[in-house]
Amino acid sequence: MTRATTKFYIPGYPRPQFVRSQWLDLNGEWDFSFDDNKAGVAERWMDHFPATHTINVPFTYETAASGIGEETFHPQIWYRRKLILSPAAEGKRTILHFEGVDYQAVCWVNGGFAGEHEGAYTRFSCDITDLLNADTENEIVLMVIDSDSCLQPRGKQRWAGRNHDSFYVQTTGIWKSVWLEHVHALRLEKVKMTPDINRQMIRFDYSVHGLTDSADLRLETEITFKGERVTSFSLSADRPSLTVEASMTGGINGPWLQNLWSPGHPNLFDVEFVLYAGEQEMDRVGSYFGMRNISIRDGQILLNNIPLYQRLILDQGYWPDTHLTPPSEEALVEDIETMLEMGYNGLRKHMKVEDARFLYWCDVKGLLVWSEMAAAYEFNDEAMERFTREWLEVVQQQYNHPCIITWVPFNESWGVQNILHDVRQQKFTEGIYHLTKSIDPYRPVITNDGWEHTVSDILTLHDYVERGEALYTNYKDKDSITGGSGTYNEWKFAFAEGYSYKGQPVMISEYGGIAFKSGHGWGYGDQVDTEEAFLERFGSLTRAIQEIPFISGYCYTQITDVQDEVNGLLSEDRKPKVPLEKIREINLKRGM
């Protein structure tokens, strides 16, 4: 790629906000077998793997890109990868990373247990050092267990053996990158970065792994901006958890406000962390951050203390031959650039936790992101436990991305279907709200996007009415929407029972969904015949929202077609259905 990047960017590197230079990409051809009888553990497949297929990782067996293309659901599958690893430097550990495996994964290396993880959407890692053979062949074996249970977070993945409504072919197994790196036992585990533009500071919360009493450790941090040094400092790494605040005013050329991160001005600071034991370098990590804040005051959403009008587009992140897995990093960048070209300043990533490289490029290019959890569809203790565990991992892993300005744990009462009346479900959403705020008190949280809200920082409403005149009439009177006396779109309430409007900003976070007549698939409302009819309806709806003063923005459904859902501004293979500049002209009638 020839596009502008951050200082430590490496093409294809799966974790671009925590970069080490020595790494090995394990994507590509793996051995593969279905295990419908769940016999693999008893028969010790981790020792004697009966490969029946090869698969192109990280594409799931359901996709054409995998080389298998079998859409039938299989509840248990196995992978094997053979490789020879050069010996790691003395004292180093070999860490195997899986960016995403759906849903339960158990890993063995050379027949020895290496680790396990539950949850489809988050990264997990295994220290495989003690299981490796030096200078001889090694075998990585992964067993994956999936289900069609609605108790596990599954997003838009179908569970009935066929596509139905807005649910699509399931995703089973490895669907994000697999890679490894060699690191010292003594190393940085993570760094949490929290900007504070009002105080012109950034806080670093460091976690150090492998600390010993005898280690004489220091941690050096250097911040640069466009190649110029901003500040550097050193501190004694004498505890596993360290916190420091750094001033961001020194060494920056020009007025401070010119260096903040925002759409149109996605300024990013590079930062390097180096951990020493005495004079020996133990770890070196490159990263970046953006100085920005998102806040709410007087019913308005503010970015960097300036009112923000959000022009978002719904993005489900599907591709024809690869489904939930992006076909390439370039494909992610092209989607982002297309959204910007159409005049959107952000997106709502719907029912999916996207590849970290997508968030990287949103950071670099200045595209706002609402990060949304994949839903479960039933409610009991098991569902709550699974959801909570995985959602907290999502928030922790995505925390440092400046592009993320809103957390969306729930959508349209999915998984909390009786929230209007059920106190237990209401309390669950309250609990998730407060847990999210305990990790990240700086971003808004929407607890039930579109429908019956409990505690929520933004009041978001979904409405697929076909005409702008009707939309304007329904929403022009703020009190009729926020008063809680009736339904706002003829069938849904804005708040669950016992909750009321507290002055939150209001947004229309789903609307549109217009489809062309095509003889297959579906959209919202009547399908249109011509480009002119599409643009007239799109413009009518969008302008109606723009003309309502108290509404802080909107999210149009959606950027691309997805399998049977053909209401995208682009086809599934990313061909525009109408000229992008005409969408842009309508979007830019209002907003920054």
> What is the level 1 CATH name of the largest domain?
Alpha Beta
The major pleated sheet works out as: 7 strands, parallel
Unreliable residue runs: none
Number of folding domains?
3
Counting helices, strands and paired strands, the structural category is alpha+beta
Number of strand elements: 31
Write down the overall mean pLDDT.
94
Kindly estimate the percentage of residues that lie in beta strands according to DSSP. Answer: 25-35%
Q: Helix tally?
A: 8
CATH architecture of the largest domain: Alpha-Beta Barrel
N→C terminal distance: 29 Å
Description:
InterPro entries: Beta-gal/glucu_dom_sf, Galactose-bd-like_sf, GH, GH2_Domain-Containing, Glyco_hydro_2_cat, Glyco_hydro_2_N, Ig-like_fold, Ig-like_GH2. Keywords: Glycosidase, Hydrolase. This protein starts with about 20 loop residues before the first strand and ends in a 5-residue tail after the last helix. It has about 600 residues and is an alpha+beta fold. The chain has eight helices and 31 strands. The chain has three domains: about 25-175, Sandwich (Jelly Rolls), CATH 2.60.120.260; about 185-290, Sandwich (Immunoglobulin-like), CATH 2.60.40; about 305-585, TIM Barrel (Alpha-Beta Barrel), CATH 3.20.20. α1 (about 330-340) links the parallel β25 and β26. A seven-stranded parallel beta sheet has the order 28-27-26-25-31-30-29, covered by helices on one side. A six-stranded antiparallel beta sheet has the order 3-2-4-10-7-8, with no helix packed on it.
